[in-house]
Structure formats: C-alpha cells, structure tokens
Design goal:
single chain; 9 helices; globular
Length: 306
Amino acid sequence: MAGSTVRVRVPATSANLGPAFDCAGIALTLHDVVGFAVADSGLTVEVSGVGAGELPTDGSHLVVRAFRAACDVLGWSPPGLRVVAENGIPQGRGMGSSAAAVVAGVVGAFELCPDVDVRDDGAVLRLATELEGHPDNVAPCLLGGATLSWMTGGAARAARLAVLPGLRPVVLVPEATLSTHLARGLLPDAVPHTDAATTAGRAALLVHALTREPGLLLEATEDRLHQRQRAAAMPGSLDLLDRLRAAGHPAVVSGAGPSLLVLAGGDEDAVSGVSSLTPEGWCLYPLEVDPDGACVLPAAPGVSSR
C-alpha cells in the first residue's frame, strides 16, 4: 500500500438556513482539497492557504484525527501517512470548516483502505457525525446540494433536496471569528411555544421555497430560535442581517456565525443589492450551490508518500 494516494475535495457549508436549526444545510462552491498518501512510516502534514502557519501539522490536526478514527473503524492501520491540505474555507466563521476537515479525513481513509471496494456514504455520514457532534454541516459536505439531516437511534441520517437552478448563495464574512461552543452557550434552555410553532412552520416552508417557489425564501428563512439569541456575540452580524432582510434579501446567520448567508436569486441585481449593503471590512463571496459534495480528484504530483 505504500505510495497509494488519494485527493479529496470537500465544500464549505452553511447550516440552519434560518429556521431549520441543526437539521438543514447547503454545500457551497468554496473548497478544501486534501491529499493523502500512504507512506512507509511516520506522519507528515502540510497546510497551505487558509490556516497555514496556524493549524497544527502533527497528529492533532483534525483531518488526521478523523482519518485515524475511520481507520480504527475499518480495522486498518497504514504504516505511515502524508497529508497535504490546500485550504480555501474560512476558519471559525460558520462555514463548516471543521465538518469539512472531518469529512475529508473519513473519506480519505475509506478511499485508501484496501478492504473497501465501494465507499459507503451512510457509514461515512454516521462516523463523521460522531466526530463532529451533529450532522447539519456534515450531510451537505458529504452529499452536496441542500440536505435535511436527523438522528435515529443515535445514528445520523440525511436526505438530499433538489434545489431549484438559479439559486445563488452569497456569503458575507466579517473579520471577526466566533467559536461554535461559545455561540451555542448563548442559547436558552427553553423557548416560548409560539416561537417554536412559528419556526417549525417556517422550516417546512423552507423546503418548499428551496425546491419549488424561491419567491417565498424571505418568509421561509424567518427564525425565532437561535439567531437573535446570539446577538451579544455578534452584534455587527445581526445589525447587517436586519438591514439585508429589511431590503428584501433572504439573509440568515450562517451556522453559528458570525458570517451571513443570503439565498439570492440568479440575477446580478440581487448580488449587487447585497454588495451595496455590505460594510467595509467584510468579504463578499458570490458562490453557487455545490452539487457534488465530497469527491475524489485525480492525484497530483505533489501528493506522494515522499
């Protein structure tokens, strides 16, 4: 097996999409590409792009931890490993960077393991969710498109939605970062019944709007469960969210924030309208829905065991 290589491309994701808290997500055309090579011995980790010089380059790197966890499940232990990560997904900004790392590591192990003939995405989803803690980012990262995800009997499951062509996600990324742990800590233990009922109705409407009637996305993305409750940790994001929605743009907090996601229409006027409201210091990413999710790319000359 020494010298065997694989390159895995994984997309950024945005979870929640407003009211569908912890159960919906969408894959975006912004990627990390991670190469894996079985070596004779040892571990080498190289990181370029986002996080270079900041992320660990040893066994504590999240990709490596996920790869080794998958190897344990598969009953396989490569003699050595080289990992080359080319990162394009912003870190700590609600764009699924940790889910992408976990999915890349698990998929890499499944693809390289000599005992695996065909990758089982159901098994990958379950293991990646165990490592990540929840499936809302893992599912779209693995499967692509928009997904609904849930837990049954302690195991993750997911369904893919057929999003209408022409939907153009625009992500607004501030300079500040926010840890998911901190953001979740701001959520109350209980919510009023009326807020829960309203949000459930909006989540159901969201599925219809994404797949049948995008003109309803502004109403479908209304949330009462988690966005406003996190305002103290990202006041600038919530202020921009309010201004975007007041202007008619279906904007939501991306994951735990502080980035925002706008589910814009396919015309340039929609993107220009979002851009005109974007403050200085924020980065604007006009993207597409990634239809592929985690996929294997042709091997590159730089990803070898030596």
